[in-house]
Write a sequence for this structure.
């Protein structure tokens, strides 16, 4: 039995995308989508990742499973540093790490049958052939609540919720240990969302999966996650156990984000006080020095423009990056 | 108070090559002056089509088969296309779901904002310019003079949605229809837009119809809610009626399938099994019956009409029939 703690460790992860600015060389600037993030995920847990659009949640998820080559930092998967591996050496790790995509309409090839979509992964990793392959596909379809006969159908014959199930079956086909769920439910209807979330929870329990759950629907993230990390402009600003984060958010950004959740209860909605953030998220191209949240923060102090706050423990594994603490 | 809008027995169908899609099946909605109501439902429940019928913006294969659309006392169904053009944008403003695609990328924001003002209010360009700037500052866009000269791509999603709201409100409409105005936006921006809409209703007295699938959004903004399912209204009542005293299994299902961020114990979500009905062959009985835990024999064969519960609270479910077995709502009122 291996150590369950720090199953995946991310150290100072950076992902910068170059933007061409000047015609003749000169200074090149970067979109710093992920800029110096460090955190870890324990085995069998669900880490939620929240933040506004453009804060780098998706890039973080994709860089961890190396769909993007990291610009800097280390990704340590089960004690093994995978951040510099070549694609050939990556192959065994690809089997252990899978992804579920946001848009069930765009992430399935419309010209392949559902059986082939799921079977493709099995073929690439040489996991099964012939009858065994077919049985495996049928098993996976049943596993996600579809029928075995669905293997011969094409994606357009399915509803959004069913397509997302196909996407989950494809991720499970190679028996992964770790799945990055990138907004898996945001394109689905309310009554269908709960079906998919429950299924993800069942699969985690049965197969011992570890999830990185990326979403902007904060109440769903709270529901599914054991711990939650809050991102702002390429940085982790707060990370804590999920109830702790919701009861005692310490970072001003987290406080504003949580107060903005619409509460499906008229009395509670009337009683709660909203902290409305002014303005929009600034551009991640060459972000300003100091704290990145300073221009929208209610409590800005001179030190915020001078020094960049580091993640500090405020008690019981609750980390936050703010000068006011 | 007078009714600003009365939709009576509206039926809208689309004629496609596979058959007639009965998107809206006999619904009635009323709205008073200065009131904000919500229409809640899943995709395909007919909520957007109801509003498109009201604005008479249906596609060529769509047809209003029956019903009355009384706006300010006159029936919009009898109004010509030319007459509708005077109403759209002038008396009824509409905010569409996707702020990214609803603005023309080749015209400046100022140009697009001034167009309806010049068209409807018959004012000079200078006056329209002043009014446009006033609208932009009203919706909270900083330095509006400079912003007027910019193009939509220079605005963020939240800013574009504000421009859409400014445009919809620029001619002082009596009615504002907001079709999923915050779905494409982040929670922080959503909060800004909702506060803005509440504010405008109080300041300008505009009536609002808010279409959404997010129960949290209606709980905050609306005083009355219509729940739609399968092209029909299954329950209608005040916000408190719907959230605390609901008498329809579909509403129960909707309320139970969203987690409340305030609860600390991890409860399992209770999804509604199955999928919404096919409106080409709408079920004979209650549209929700195949997915309903409480379905009885009568539910499969006869469509329930809206039973009056108390005051404005009405529910289209056979469980409310005096002879039906008594069923308690599975929702437990959370202690606040």
């Amino acid at each position: 039995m291996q150590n369950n703690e720090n199953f995946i460790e991310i150290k100072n992860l950076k992902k910068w995308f170059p933007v061409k600015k000047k015609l003749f060389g000169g200074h090149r600037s970067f979109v710093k989508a992920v800029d110096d993030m460090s955190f870890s995920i324990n085995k069998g847990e669900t880490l939620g990742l929240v933040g506004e659009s453009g804060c780098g949640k998706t890039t973080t998820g994709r860089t961890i499973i190396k769909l993007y080559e990291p610009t800097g930092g280390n990704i340590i998967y089960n004690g093994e540093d995978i951040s510099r591996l070549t694609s050939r050496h990556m192959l065994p790790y690809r089997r252990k790490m899978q992804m579920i995509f946001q848009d069930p309409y765009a992430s399935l090839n419309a010209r392949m049958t559902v059986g082939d979509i799921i079977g493709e992964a099995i073929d690439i990793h040489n996991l099964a052939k012939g009858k065994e392959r077919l049985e495996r596909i049928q098993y996976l379809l049943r596993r996600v609540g579809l029928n075995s006969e669905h293997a011969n159908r094409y994606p357009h014959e399915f509803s959004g919720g069913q397509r997302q199930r196909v996407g989950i079956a494809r991720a499970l086909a190679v028996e992964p240990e770790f799945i990055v769920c990138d907004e898996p439910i945001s394109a689905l209807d309310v009554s269908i969302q709960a079906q998919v979330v429950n299924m993800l929870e069942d699969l985690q329990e049965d197969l011992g999966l570890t999830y990185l759950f990326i979403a902007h629907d904060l109440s769903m993230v709270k529901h599914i996650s054991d711990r939650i990390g809050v991102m702002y402009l390429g940085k982790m600003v707060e990370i804590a156990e999920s109830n702790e984060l919701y009861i005692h958010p310490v970072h001003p950004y987290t406080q504003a984000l949580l107060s903005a959740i619409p509460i499906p209860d008229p009395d509670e909605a009337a009683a709660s006080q909203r902290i409305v953030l002014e303005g929009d998220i600034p551009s991640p191209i060459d972000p300003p020095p100091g704290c990145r949240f300073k221009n929208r923060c209610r409590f800005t102090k001179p030190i915020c423009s001078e020094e960049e706050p580091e993640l500090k423990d405020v008690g019981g594994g609750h980390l936050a990056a703010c000068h006011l603490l | 108070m007078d009714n600003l809008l009365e939709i009576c027995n509206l039926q809208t169908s689309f004629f496609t090559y596979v058959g007639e899609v009965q998107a809206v099946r006999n619904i009635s909605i009323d709205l008073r002056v200065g009131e904000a109501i919500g229409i809640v439902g899943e995709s395909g429940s007919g909520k957007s089509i109801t509003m498109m019928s009201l604005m008479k913006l249906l596609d060529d294969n769509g047809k209003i088969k029956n019903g009355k659309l009384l706006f300010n006392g006159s029936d919009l169904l009898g109004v010509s296309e030319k007459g509708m053009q005077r109403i759209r944008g002038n008396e009824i403003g509409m905010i569409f779901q996707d702020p990214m695609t609803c603005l023309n990328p080749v015209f400046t924001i100022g140009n697009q904002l001034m167009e309806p003002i010049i068209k409807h209010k018959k004012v000079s360009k200078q006056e329209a310019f002043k009014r446009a700037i006033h609208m932009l500052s009203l919706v909270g866009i900083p330095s509006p003079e400079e912003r007027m000269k910019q193009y939509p791509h220079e605005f963020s999603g939240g800013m574009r949605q504000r421009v859409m709201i400014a445009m919809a409100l620029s001619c002082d409409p009596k009615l504002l229809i907001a079709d999923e105005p915050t779905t494409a936006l982040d929670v922080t921006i959503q909060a800004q837009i909702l506060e803005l809409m509440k504010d405008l209703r109080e300041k300008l007295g505009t009536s609002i119809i808010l279409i959404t699938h997010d129960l949290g959004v209606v709980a905050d903004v609306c005083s009355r809610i219509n729940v739609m399912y399968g092209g029909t209204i299954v329950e209608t009542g005040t916000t408190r009626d719907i959230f605390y005293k609901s008498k329809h299994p579909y509403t129960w299902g909707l309320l139970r399938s969203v987690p409340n961020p305030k609860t600390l114990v991890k409860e399992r979500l209770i999804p509604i099994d199955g999928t919404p009905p096919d409106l080409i062959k709408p079920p004979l009985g209650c549209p929700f019956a195949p997915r309903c835990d409480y379905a009885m024999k009568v539910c499969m064969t006869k469509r329930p009409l809206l039973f009056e519960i108390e005051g404005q609270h009405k529910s289209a479910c056979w469980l409310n029939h005096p002879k039906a077995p008594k069923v308690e709502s599975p929702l437990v009122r959370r202690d606040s």
About this structure: The longest strand of chain A covers residues 29-41.
